[in-house]
Amino acid sequence: MERVIPDFEHLSQDRLRALVATGIALNSELSLERVLERVVESAAALTGARQALLELAAGAGGESGRLVGFGIDPSSREAADEILHGPGTLSEPILIRGKPFAHLYLAAKRNDQFFTAEDEELLRALTTQAAVAIEMSERVARDALRRVVAAQELERRRLSRELHDETAQTLTSVLLGLQSIVEAADAERAVAEAERLRELVTQALQDVRRLAVELRPKALDDFGLLPALKRLATGFSEQTGIRVEVESFLDDKRLPSEIETALYRIVQESLTNVVKHARASSVSVLVTRKSGSVIAVIEDDGRGFDAGAGRDEGLGLMGMEERVALLDGRLQIESSEGAGTTIVAEVPLR
Fold this sequence. Notes:
Largest sheet: 5 strands, mixed
Radius of gyration: 28 Å
CATH architecture of the largest domain: 2-Layer Sandwich
Oligomer: single chain
CATH topology of the largest domain: Beta-Lactamase
Number of domains: 2
């Protein structure tokens, strides 16, 4: 910010304050989409333009030619062309490391006035601030993606260990048992060994089904979030003896797939934490809609932890936060020692 403002000290104090506030607001956004939306909104507000249009350049996240508009429907090519190529349009490139990332166009200034030299300077300052915010949002997205991939690799290692330590050993026992049947001295011993093998195979099938559900629950794809959560809760209760209640205030309309997956994984990770760390006897899961977003609340009556003492990577909380952040949502964790834990995940619906 310091390198932008000195070049524009001759601007009016009101416009300088607005420019500073805009820079702060831009850099508070973490997602590229919200940065672009705020850029066109801010450009119109700072200059008094009725319409603002941002066109992404080639190589800008693989979205060359995409339009983001304010005061105009960017899907209307005729309206967009009037701004992109019409007379009286004010434009300025957004450069990232010296290369064009996008072009910002302004048209139809209020009161039918012409854009002034001061408007041009404001727009130039804004595009400089926008470039910083865009770079920051892209860096945040890359870091978030790396952490998600790392978490996925940890999960794959865990599943691999379970396959090796449980399923593979069970199947090895089955092979040895088959040899015992072949070498059995009498029919009674063969029948007894066959019964033992049947139990081993049953256990192996249950393990494989459990791992398949952990990898990707079929109920989530076929029926949606609520049925998948109820099935998850039932299986969790049967395995651990911890009571889980699932309640939903969603309608029958399916949520976007990425939201269903993220909320399912957050509930799944929360239940894993309950059995590993919480020493809880019951858990409640609530999913509901609220003013353009969907919220999942997971609450347990366990021993809790000091939520202000920093993140324990063993709890998987950072992975939950990354999942929510990638969807422009937020994760809130409330816990204290001896008072249980409440996790609230809120994701906007688009």
